[in-house]
Design brief:
There is one protein chain. The protein is built from five helices and no strands. By secondary structure, it is mainly alpha-helical. The chain has a single domain, classed as 434 Repressor (Amino-terminal Domain) (Orthogonal Bundle). One of its GO terms (cellular component) is cytosol. It comes from Candidatus Intestinimonas pullistercoris.
Length: 77
């Protein structure tokens, strides 16, 4: 699994654990739903601003979200 897809999968799992649809989460994060969908599908990489917005929508601190991603994605190049 490539990195963007892995990050997207983690975001999808966290969103579903909160019982949110993509539309609900993107609304809470003030993101376009289509853009958020592309992030979850690994077609787009989130900017740092977007990571902060998604973390807030998931009731997490940004560093908590980044830690989960870091622990679950192989970033070796």
């Amino acid at each position: 699994m490539i990195q963007a897809e892995a990050v997207g999968h983690i975001l999808q799992v966290l969103r579903k654990k909160k019982g949110l649809t993509q539309e609900q989460l993107s609304g809470l994060a003030t993101l376009d739903r289509t853009h958020y969908s592309k992030i979850e599908r690994g077609l787009r990489n989130p900017t740092i601003d977007t990571v902060f917005k998604i973390a807030s929508a998931l009731d997490m601190k940004p560093h908590e979200l980044v830690k989960i991603i870091e622990e679950n994605v192989d970033f070796r190049f």
